[in-house]
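FAQ
Q: What does a multi-component entry look like?
A: The components come first, one per line:
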Amino acid sequence: MSLAKKTENWVNEQIITREQQTKILAFEGSHGNNTFWNVAMGIAGSLIGLGFCLLIAANWQTIPDEIKLAGDFAVLGGFFYAAYWSVQNQRNGLKELFVILSFLGIGATIGLVGQIFQLSGGWTKAALFWAILSLPFIWVSRVMFFNVVWVLLVLSTCDFAWLEKFCKYAFEELNMGTLLSLVGTYAIYTSLENARPQTDKYTLLPAALAKIALAGAYAIVCYVGMRWGIITESAMDMAGAYIIVFGFFAMRMYMAVRHQDRGSFKRNAIWAEVYIFIIFSSRLNNLGLSGLGFIGSGLLILFFIWVMRRTSRYIKQMEIFK
Amino acid sequence: MKKYTLAVFFLLPWLVLAGWVVSLSCIRANGTEVTVAIMGYDPRDLLSGRYIAYQIDWKKTNCAQFPHNQCPSEKEFCTDARWGRQCRFYVPETFANDLDKLFRRRSDQLRFEVVYSYTPRKTPIAKKLLINGTPWQTYLMENPQ
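Then the predicted structure of the entire assembly, as tokens:
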């Protein structure tokens, strides 16, 4: 739809006035449409970049190691300078782009040096080295995703034997170990969330760690819910799993009300409903394989979709959220 | 002040990486060349991507090359290597299959060695992979697979 038609609709719907429409059209008319040129330049730039990559890749074996290293360090230096320039000139979009490129460039450089000098070091040391060197760039980044990636990179260097011991302690059977691991993970999340007002203005790293801890807590709940709530035959384990899963969702919903977070409340309510649906479906057994079973399953899915939509609408109107 | 702090903050990783490369180059250039015999760590898993995983065969290595005519301990070579302490030698992707075939099918007929730059108490750096005493590139050129 053209801008003239769009703005005409907006005027008819009383979103903007006739005067504003005239001003918008005059402004857009005087600035011209750069889409074509932007697309053309984008395609040309991509082709040039791709050409360089192919040229280097095709001649990689014949390029002397010194040239490879010099080129790599020159590009890396360029990324670092561009990131510095973007921070200085408050170009946030560019800053994030060059921060990411610097982060990836450091990893690529470590890999290249490892290849050229035939280093046999395992992932742990390389990842830790990468994480330490890229810390200044991640520190200035305001993109949560890259902060999470960086924290995961650091976590990947942890001793997996320790993780194995933890998993054995927490997940071998449903007991206090399982509950403690869930409470511990959630406590880490809560403490980091409480620290966020003070830390967020400097760095997003604690927030990223909080997100990972929360994801870990949900993963534990999911594991408990599936292993002991669905698969197991023991009624005691099943009851314990239901208490943990529904207790966790209820606690999250209570916290959402306290923090006036309607989105979080809705998500957890829907998750609880999805879990109830999974419990029902798992109890169908062979019934689900018959003709009537298929019809029943379809109706059950439709019913749960209807329930979830009703819940969603109801939460939107709830008065506990101001 | 903030401007310079940020510049130093961003320059530091570059300097550390450059220093690392310089130190590795010095170790490689100043060490004594030693040749050690190698064997595949596991014939089915010899080539993983673009590197060859191997173990040093100390029984077939000439220990007279080392100080006091004594072969160093196994831990001194490939100290950081995982998965059974195998060492790695990176090879270009296009030659990986040919080398794999050589290792798998003819490892009993051919002699595989790696030339290291060796300085006592420093991590040895692999420089060359030899097949029957010649660099692998020359060997593959003379004996196309």
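Q: Is there any commentary attached?
A: Sometimes. For this entry: Chain A touches chain B at residues 60-61, 69, 73, 76-77, 80-81, 83-84, 87-88, 102, 106, 109-110, 113, 115, 117-123, 125, 133-134, 136-137 (CB under 8 Å).
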